[in-house]
Amino acid sequence: MVTSLDAMWDSVDAQISTTAAGGSGGSAASYFIPLQQFLFSFLSRTLLGADTSAASSEIQNSGHIMIDKWLAFQLLPTISINLIQPLEEIFLHSFAFPFWPIKSDYQKLVNFVEKEAKETLDIAQRDFGLTKEEAVHNLLFILGFNAFGGFSILLPNLLTNLGNDKEVQEQLRKEVREKLTAADGLSFDSVKQMDLVNSFVYETLRMKPPVPSQFGRARKDFDLSSHDAVYKVKKGELLCGYQPIVMRDSRIFEKADEFVFDRFSKERGGGDELLKYLFWSNGPQRGGDGPSAGNKQCSGRDMVPLTAAVFLAYLFRRYDEIEVSSGSITALKKAE
Ligand code: HEM
Q1: Residues 291, 301: contact at Cβ < 8 Å?
Q2: DSSP class of 53
Q3: Ligand 1 within 6 A of 157 CB?
Q4: Domain residue limits, the chain
Q5: Annotated binding site for heme
Q6: Using CA atoms, how far apart are residues 119 and 123, in angstroms rounded to an integer?
Q7: 36 with 5: CB under 8 angstroms?
Q8: How far is the CA of 282 from the centre of ligand 1 (A)?
Q9: Which annotated residues bind heme (predicted)?
Q10: How far apart are CA 132 and CA 140, in angstroms?
Q11: What value does the mean pLDDT of the chain take?
């Protein structure tokens, strides 16, 4: 992760110095492409065991764009892009898009998995009884849809929430540098000690859950309780959950509509009790059964916030301050 983050931030630094040298009076770097390149290489390595630097130059340079196109074809029929109605309903939401426009890029991704993720494919076939074909498509789905798709929303949200808030940034930076002793270095274990950094990540997931809606059919009759009512649900009924409402429940969260970066910190009494009400993963962050084959909770429940915490800790190890505005980084002050 750190190697891929080095490449991402080197590229942002280079863009900032080029625009500053351009003499237009300001500097700005759009971080989206470097961020997606970072995600593609880091996630390929961690989820597939595939090294993108050993792949063809086309995959190295454009693998993330191939995934973006594949994602767009699946998501456009289900999301709103604020096109004038009824045009959006008629042209985007009335039929599943065909596969042929993305077939050739998808095949290149399949070839990449077959060639570079051999060991993972062997495990899938030998230990889990999948066919090679099933394993390839499942790995690509987890890589592209679950992980790349989710992080492509979450990490920009983190940067946007940092905005230009010098006070919050100072507290995060202080914590990161205190906890990152030379002996430990940057790791999942060392970021677990960073109470404020973790709280910032959780609060971002609370205010802007990257996958806001969930659907499911009741498997049996049951009673669904809220604070003060009980609803009878019948087997087979279709249920929809909308996370942004659930996670702004003012009976649970004080100042529920405000971004309070240290809300989940131990000092504020956040901790495990409040995390029972954090549902971005389609289940509680603490308590409950945890992700399992029977409940559709995200299997990245623990790995996702930790990865986001490493992302932030890396940032505040490398820089003293950052300014983010409308999808661009407008200033970066390197650590002294
Ligand atoms: C920011 C990143 C992520 C977000 C926001 C996210 C969110 C979610 C949500 C909301 C669901 C439930 C979907 C539904 O049933 O409607 C889900 C399911 C799932 N997620 Fe994630 N996820 C993320 C990253 C990951 C990662 C990194 C992995 C892989 C390790 C992963 C693997 C899965 C799987 C396999 C499911 C399906 C579970 C099932 O139906 O049994 N996710 N994710």
Answers
A1: yes
A2: G
A3: no
A4: 212-244
A5: 298
A6: 6
A7: no
A8: 8
A9: 298
A10: 12
A11: 94
Residues β-bridged to residue 223 = 232
Q: In terms of Cα–Cα distance, which of 142, 178, 168, 185 is closest to 262?
A: 168
Confidence class for position 14, pLDDT limits 50, 70, 90 = very high
The pLDDT of residue 28 is 86
300 CA from centroid of ligand 1 (Å): 6
Instruction: Provide the token pair at 44.
Output: 């390929």
- Cβ(330) to ligand 1 under 6 A? no
pLDDT tens across 71-107, in order? 999 999 988 888 889 999 999 999 989 999 999 999 9
Q: Look up residue 47 and give its two tokens.
A: 């989820």
Q: Are 297 and 283 in contact (CB under 8 A)?
A: yes
Amino acid code (one letter) for 324 = V
By the 8 A CB rule, do 148 and 74 touch? no
**pLDDT, mean of residues 238-266:** 96
Q: Tell me, what amino acid is at 214?
A: Q
- Token couple for 159: 């940067």
DSSP 104: H
Per the CB < 8 A criterion, the answer to whether 57 and 47 are in contact is no
Residue for token pair 């456009």:
76
pLDDT tens-place string over residues 145-186: 999 999 999 999 999 999 999 999 999 999 999 999 766 789
